[in-house]
Amino acid sequence: MILFENIRWKNFLSTGNQFSEINLNTNDQTTLIIGSNGSGKSTVLDALTFSLFNKPYRKISKSQLVNTVNEKDCR
């Protein structure tokens, strides 16, 4: 079983130049991510699958993953 402690990214899709980080290391066995449309739920999923499999979850190209405003330093 894979246990994720946290996921961290910046300049990835619609997120900006500051790191976004979600702590997944809790005492619970599952993590539920909820939010309204446009709040970043799919971005979290894309960041996680890209870090594991080198491709996003959605059908978008790698060049579209870099934030279009900053256009650099995607981590």
How does this structure look, described?
By secondary structure, this protein is α+β, with helices and mostly antiparallel strands. The protein is 17% helix and 11% strand. It is built from one helix and two strands. The chain has one helix at residues 41-53, and strands at 6-9, 20-23. The mean pLDDT is 79.
Characteristics:
alpha+beta, two-stranded antiparallel ribbon, globular, single chain, 2 strands
Q: Can you give me a brief rundown of this structure?
A:
The chain is of the alpha+beta class. The protein has 1 helix and 2 strands.
Secondary-structure topology with pairs:
Layout: E1 6-9, E2 20-23, H1 41-53
Antiparallel strand pairs: 1-2
Strand order of the largest sheet: 1-2
Please tell me the overall pLDDT: 79
Query: What is the CA-based Rg, rounded?
Result: 13 Å
Q: What is the CA–CA distance across the termini?
A: 25 Å
Biggest beta sheet attributes: 2 strands, antiparallel
The count of β-strands is 2
Q: What series of H and E elements makes up the topology?
A: EEH
Shape: globular
- Structural class label: alpha+beta
Poorly predicted runs are: none
Q: What proportion of the residues is helical, as a percent range?
A: 10-25%
Strand content: 5-15%
Helix count, DSSP H or I runs of 4 or more residues = 1
